[in-house]
Amino acid sequence: MKRRNFLKACLIGGTTIAMGKTNKGWASGSFEGYPESMGVLVDTTRCIGCRSCEAACNKEQNLPEPDTSFDDKSVFEEPRRPTAKAYTVVNQYEKQKPGGPVYRKVQCNHCNEPACLTSCFVNAYTKTKEGAVIYNSKVCVGCRNCMIACPFNVPGYDYESVTNPVIKKCILCYDTRLKVGKPPACVEICPQEALTFGHRADLIKVAHERIRSNPDRYVDHVYGEKEVGGTSWLYLSGTEFDKIGFDPSLSNDPIISNVKDFLGMVPMVLSIWPALFSGIHLLSKHDAGSEGHDTESKEEDR
Amino acid sequence: MKNMIKHGLAVVDSPYDESGRKRTVVEKLLLGLTPSQYLLQAFRNPFNWILAAIFAIGIPILLGRFVFGLAWATSGSNDYPWGLFLGFGLFAMVPLSSSGFQLGTACEIFGRHDLEPIERLALLNGLLGYFFAVVYLLADLGQPWRLPYPMVVSFGPAAVLFLVAWHVATYLSVQVAEVSTAFFEWIGFPAGKRGVRRITLGLTVSGIILSTLHQGALGALFTYAPGKVHPLWYSSSFQWLHFFVSSLPGGLCMVITVSTIASKFMGWRADRRFREKLDRCTVSLAKGACMGIATYITIKLIGIAHDNKWSYLDSGWGQWFMLEIILGFMLPLVLMTYGVHTRKVNIVRLGAFATVFGVVLNRVNTAIITFNWKLPEREIPPWREVVISLTIFAIYIVVYRFILYRLPILYKWRQQEEEVPVTETVTVPAAGRREASPVAVASYSNMTKLD
């Protein structure tokens, strides 16, 4: 009877484990983001490239004067990226197309599971419950690993500074605005209402509603809804997303899931190696006999 | 030095000089020469002139990097945050320094006492390689004075870099302890040596753990950047294994390389035991390295097959990849296998050089050359960055040589007890003394079963 119980338990246990393996959710529940997370919906079909968002950001974040004024349209000749001096930039795409140029604002997308945060070895990054990814420049060592990790190439580094070079990027105006419930400066100033601020969950609904009611105007995809685990900034586009500078190859898994294999291996090595190699040592020591290292060193130190 | 030894200078290999007087630290530091003799031999060495030229230009630029900032010294680009300092200095130096834990394992764990003549060189190679990887890192960090932050101020334990930082720090101290036995012998502190020898097993096992994780973690750093590193150099499942496995032949071949250079230019410093056993040790190391390379090539192919990346081979990047694999790994594998079979040690050494080249190229490829392969422009490191990297490497060579000249790494330090009868009979000719010294060669004579 006892043996039968044992076998039964084995069978049940084995089946449970086997089923558990197929159900990925068991190991590390999939993370859907923060329920209160705010976000911004960017409708690139409305953007006219006025760059007033750049100017507002510059003022709000006390950034240095730009090389050329914010009215200068010549900056559109080359695609730009966010830097330590400009947390957001507007780029122009599809210049030759009959539909006219398409503009797209670039800034930190405030991922639900940010790669910068998980790659930082001093925990300088924080994802706040409002959805902003902020950073603590007081502990930043300047390793620039977050710049390697960011799938959107966002963090800028203050290479020019000698005494305090740190990472600089959009923080969704967290300190001055988001914390007190106000929208970021760029959203507030946008004359075209190309930027919509609100709860991320609501914005996703708004975005799909716009696509549904105007299927000719939009590509049927909300960029940032699922990419790398979802971002707080969401984009709508009238042309294919890869034509306006988005990386279509990004996976829906957050970046950290690439690293999990290795992270899981670490405690295994820590626990298996000592026993394994001490064991081998004991085995090999046995036949080493009197000519071994230990006897010899004793003679040396006598 | 060779000339001076020819003219009757006795090399320092024991605590006493010819007349039986205890040597002072200064005498040991000057290798038993007078200050003017020491300067003369340093002046005569043409290699020192090259080093002097590098330092004359490099040291001011290295200091300038800390005065004028990263933007002055490096390309300072947002798209290529890591340049030569990390790509070459950290990512290439670390795999070449895996020798410490491998030889430690072979000698202390597997009981391969026949490899002991080269064990200390391998341990030193490990220590210095890691140490200078940290020096390169300090040059690269924006705020180098905050390097201890992940240890004491703010923890990010989920980050791979956090593991790297902790493992390098702890492994460095393990390696300092492992090499310290030679230092304790040299300064005459047998109690310290005994203490370290007592915990050797613990040190060696922690060395294996920390190296496995650390070598792997350097590869795992790139798994944060899927799509940025070219797929042929990237594998999300196996990246850490690729880095770990290629570091094994990398470290072994670096020891072959260094021992070759040392025996060629520092033959006077090596004792008979080292000189006689070197070829045999080289062949043993090469056998290990061949196994490592064969495994590495296999898992590289598995990596390509796993993600079905064959089509990438038919492109410019693919040719560059094949060049790295063929010149850096397949050719040395053939050379070393042939050399081992026919006992042509020089061919083995050639293969080892090629392997070192291959491992360095692989790391530079992963970290710099193929990084951001989708972006239109490639980054070319500016001249100041190249000069600083070269300067730090030259400092590495100088420190390496400084230690090899002095500490009992390539030779055995003769202990006091053995020295007593010799000091009583002062008539022993100085030049012949090293040969006549009671080095424990006998205990290795019956090790022929292992080559």
From TrEMBL, chain A:
Pfam families: Fer4_11 (PF13247)
One GO MF term attached to the UniProt entry: 4 iron, 4 sulfur cluster binding
Domain of life where this protein originates: Bacteria
Protein localization: Cell envelope
InterPro entries: 4Fe4S_Fe-S-bd, 4Fe4S_Fe_S_CS, FDH_Electron_Transfer_Unit
Key words, A-Z: 4Fe-4S, Iron, Iron-sulfur, Metal-binding, Repeat
Entry keyword annotation includes 4Fe-4S: yes
GO cellular component, one term: cell envelope
Main location: other
Protein name: Four [4Fe-4S] cluster protein DVU_0535
Organism: Citrifermentans bremense
UniProtKB/TrEMBL annotation, chain B:
A GO term from the CC aspect: plasma membrane
Topological type in the membrane: Multi-pass membrane protein
Cited InterPro entries: FDH_cytochrome_b556_subunit (IPR051817)
Coiled coil: none
Keyword Ubl conjugation: no
Annotated keywords: Cell membrane, Membrane, Transmembrane, Transmembrane helix
Keyword Nucleotidyltransferase included in the entry's annotation: no
PANTHER family: FORMATE DEHYDROGENASE, NITRATE-INDUCIBLE, CYTOCHROME B556 FDN SUBUNIT, NI_FE-HYDROGENASE 2 B-TYPE CYTOCHROME SUBUNIT-RELATED
Name this protein carries in UniProt: Integral membrane protein DVU_0534
Signal peptide: none
GO biological process: anaerobic respiration
Location(s) in or outside the cell: Cell membrane
Residue intervals passing through the bilayer: 47-68, 80-101, 121-139, 159-187, 199-225, 240-262, 283-305, 317-338, 350-371, 383-404
